[in-house]
Design brief:
Number of strands: 25
Structural class: alpha+beta
Shape: elongated
CATH superfamily of the largest domain: SGNH hydrolase
Organism: Littorina saxatilis
Helix content: 10-25%
Number of domains: 3
CATH architecture of the largest domain: 3-Layer(aba) Sandwich
Strand content: 25-35%
CATH class of the largest domain: Alpha Beta
GO biological process, one term: carbohydrate metabolic process
Distance between the termini: 88 Å
Bound molecules: 2-acetamido-2-deoxy-beta-D-glucopyranose
GO molecular function, one term: sialate O-acetylesterase activity
Keywords: Hydrolase, Signal
InterPro entries: SASA, SGNH_hydro_sf, SIAE
Number of helices: 10
């Protein structure tokens, strides 16, 4: 009898599976798993070495299995396009875990610094946006914890567990990330899962794995401030590393303010970070996150209305790998939203934190539809110069946009500048070259400021804050998208920009 009681107790202890079979911390009720044709990956820990772990999305195809090796297991669920909600059962000799209310959709990772962190409670028209947001029950989100680490963290610390939108949680979630999902979903019509992993005031190095850090020039940002981790890799370790095995569709990035004192290096740093994130997410998800997954970013926004050049223009240029637009031959599957013309000089959250995240998210979605989803009919880029012609008098330049196919909306005459031979860099002042005339696809600017000297460079919107809200000079008249900032060498005698 005593023996039976003892066995029953043992049975209860093991039956409860106190931590014996576990999923990684970010698998929970209400989550979104990546939909087909990609296969969602599940992984976790278990005690019994060599044991089989079985996972089944109830009612959806066959079970998936994995052997426990070194205390870990990892498996690929079948590709599922049905949105659900489903129950997911995970079992082994060590226990049984059930996930409820799981949807299948596209999973996007949102990362960066304070403008990504900028919460829904601060966005323009916040109460209307939150009221709308909480009705969208097939957008789900989670946040990583404010944590830093000098070594890679296997099991992510969770800040906000996966949730259906609620007023209390949506107020505290990233506005750009959420609005991006909201607008994107109206085109895709299936669930979207968002992982918010961001921290204000942090440089790109903090989010970069060691492989990326090693491949670029070393940048030091001085002593570590109290507000926000700056050390290389410290947030990659704590807030990204553990996510690599989760199948995702893509990532959205809004960062750069903290790197505006080292602008040339940013080109290498951003390319390296994208390359390493892609390689490692692809490898750890057993090939299910694409090796070239779509990476969207918000080009640096504006700050105050003081009219200085500063480091922001050069950083914006670096963000595009010195092309002026994305994607380009150095940035495959990379898309951009311009934000320099969406300032908020009187933002109660500081002018560096504009409240106009709706327009930012709209522009991201236009780019994502084309670049990340292959909707090639969606125009997502503002006008960009393809040819610069010098007049015979030498007193004007004509800048042609989009090989003559642009339909320009010219809102004022400001923003073009020229650098005369020998007198230019990305940080100093240049000579104003106001617009004197324009046609449907080109603008003519006054270049007499260079006198008899050769015009070396034409630059546009080359200021930290180049204009008031939606009041830069050049827009596309159909999409309303702005021409992005540029810094272009004028070909000797004029001609195509190469
Ligand atoms: C805020 O709401 C007003 C009134 O509906 C609207 O006109 C305006 O465009 C909204 N602003 C933004 C940034 O969405």
């Amino acid at each position: 009898m005593a023996a039976l009681v003892f066995l029953a107790c043992v049975g209860i202890i093991f039956g409860h599976a106190h931590g014996a079979l576990k999923l990684a911390s970010y698998y929970s009720d209400h989550m979104v798993l990546q939909r087909g044709p990609q296969q969602a990956v599940l992984w976790g820990n278990a005690d019994t070495e060599g044991d089989t772990v079985t996972a089944q999305v109830i009612g959806q195809g066959s079970a998936a299995t994995s052997k426990v090796q070194n205390g870990k297991w990892k498996l690929k669920l079948p590709a599922i396009t049905n949105p659900g909600p489903f129950t997911v059962d995970v079992k082994s000799r060590d226990g049984h875990v059930t996930l409820h209310d799981v949807l299948f959709g596209d999973v996007w990772l949102c990362s960066g610094q304070s403008n990504m962190e900028f919460e829904m409670k601060k966005v323009m028209n916040t109460s209307t946006e939150i009221q709308k947001g909480v009705t969208l029950k097939t957008i789900r989100y989670m946040k990583t914890q404010w944590a830093k680490s000098n070594t890679p963290v296997e099991d992510l610390q969770i800040g906000q567990p996966w949730t259906v939108p609620t007023e209390a949680t949506l107020k505290e979630f990233s506005a750009v990330c959420y609005l991006y999902a909201e607008y994107l979903q109206s085109h895709l019509n299936y669930p979207i899962g968002l992982i918010g992993s961001y921290w204000g005031g942090t440089p790109i190095e903090a989010w970069s794995p060691p492989e990326a850090i090693r491949s670029c020039p070393v940048v030091t940002h001085g002593t570590e401030p109290d507000c926000c981790p700056h050390a290389p890799q410290i947030l990659w370790n704590a807030k990204i590393y553990a996510l690599r095995a989760m199948t995702i569709y893509g990532a959205v990035w809004y960062q750069g303010e903290t790197n505006a004192d080292h602008t040339t290096e940013y080109n290498c740093q951003q390319k390296a970070m994208i390359r390493e994130w892609r390689a490692q997410f692809n490898r750890e998800s057993m090939g299910q996150t694409r090796a070239d997954f779509p990476f969207g970013y918000v080009q640096l926004g504006a700050i105050d209305d003081k009219g200085y050049v500063g480091g922001f223009p050069a950083l914006r240029w670096s963000q595009t790998a010195n092309h002026g637009y994305s994607p380009n031959s150095d940035q495959h599957n990379v898309f951009m939203a311009v934000a320099m013309d969406l300032p908020d000089f009187t933002s109660p959250h500081g002018a560096i934190h504009p409240r106009y995240k709706q327009e930012v998210a709209q522009r991201l979605v236009m780019s994502a539809l084309n670049v990340a989803y292959g909707h090639k009919g969606v125009k997502f880029q503002g006008p960009f110069p393809t040819k610069i012609l010098t007049s015979s008098s030498g007193n004007s330049l004509t800048i042609e946009f989009d090989a003559g196919s642009a339909q320009l909306d010219i809102r004022n005459t400001h923003g073009f500048e020229i650098c005369c031979s020998g007198g230019c860099n990305m940080f100093n002042n240049a000579v104003a070259a106001p617009i004197t005339a324009h046609s449907q696809s080109s603008v003519t600017v006054d270049s007499s400021g260079c006198g008899s000297q050769h015009v070396q460079v034409v630059r546009y919107a080359w200021r930290t804050s180049p204009c008031h809200l939606l009041q830069c000079a050049v827009y596309d008249s159909i999409t309303g998208l702005p021409a992005p900032t540029f810094y272009l060498t004028v070909p000797e005698g004029g001609g195509l920009i190469g």
